[in-house]
Amino acid sequence: MIDESLQILLGGAISEKLQLKVHINEAKSINGGDINKTFRIGTNEGYFFLKLNNAALYPDLFQQEYAGLTELRNAQALTVPKPLAYGETAGKTFLLLENINKGTAIGDFWENFAAGLSKQHLRTNPHFGYMSPNYIGTLKQYNTPYNSWPVFYAFNRLMPLTKLAYDRGIIEAGTVKQVERLCKQLPQIFPAEKPALLHGDLWSGNFMIGPEGRACVYDPSVYYGHREVDLAMTRLFGGFDTRFYYAYQSIYPLAPGWQQRIGVCQLYPLLVHTILFGGSYYSSVREVLAAY
């Protein structure tokens, strides 16, 4: 729940951002997020979706999410909730989004989802990267632009997280050397492709069936990268029907050998989960690295 005093302050902050008098009448807590507190709020202007977090810990988290959602919406490929405002009040940061109700999947849901993602991946950029650092979970995601995907993946993805995990005592020195060895092989592993607009954290917990029966994606970690990373992420925790992959392959085929690159593409989110949650994820990291 949001206590009454914070509710009043949030109403004022939202009103200022929207240039519209907004009074929050109710706030229903929504489960499912590990990072933020989330609510469906009822106001005199209708229903909205609200995220809250600690301003001292992640001051620009919602600013970056707002930008990422806007980037995805501009692709006009998949349904993405419209970000309406972000700001700070009473030591809390907030992100206000349009409220999207859940629906029932249409018959060609997975084919439609694949078509939308392939259209999103066709949106390109001169360089791999993004306009600023953002977040993957609560971890900083570096987006320094590079012309080469192997260089980008090594210096902005694998090595920063490997160093962080080692500094925190989560992984061993031998694992660091294995990652360094893999990074030297990346130019031979990945085929050249144009930078693609990625969701960046595309697992089953980050999409829902919208009111029109089509996929709605949210909670992105946006950047321009190799599209196989998005697809490998969908396979990491399951939840995607095989029709999704067949449809994607028929619309925008992956380069030969993509099956052998799945593990390398999953290494980044596996490192993220090793740092945030530990447990069996480190075993999965070592299993991927053992092939190289």
Describe this structure in words.
This protein is an alpha+beta fold. Helices cover 44% and strands 19% of the residues. It is built from nine helices and eleven strands. The strands form four sheets. Strands 1-2-3-5-4 form a five-stranded antiparallel β-sheet, with helices on both faces. α3 (109-121) packs across α7, α4 (149-167) packs parallel to α8 (258-277) and α6 (227-236) crosses α8 (258-277). The longest helix is centred in the C-terminal third of the chain and has 20 residues, at 258-277. The radius of gyration is 20 Å and the shape is globular. The model has no long low-confidence stretch (mean pLDDT 96).
Short description:
The chain is an alpha+beta fold.
List the helices and strands and how they pair.
Layout lengths: L3 H15 L5 E7 L6 E7 L2 E9 L6 H15 L7 E7 L2 E7 L10 H13 L12 E3 L2 E3 L7 H19 L5 H17 L6 E3 L8 E3 L5 E3 L5 E3 L1 H10 L5 H10 L6 H20 L3 H9 L3
Antiparallel strand pairs: 1-2, 2-3, 3-5, 4-5, 6-7, 8-11, 9-10
Q: Tell me the number of strands.
A: 11
What's the pLDDT, averaged over the residues? 96
> Biggest β-sheet: count, sense, barrel?
5 strands, antiparallel
Q: State the shape.
A: globular
The ordered H/E elements are HEEEHEEHEEHHEEEEHHHH
**Residue runs with pLDDT of under 50 for 5 or more positions:** none
Helical amount among residues, as a percent range? 40-55%
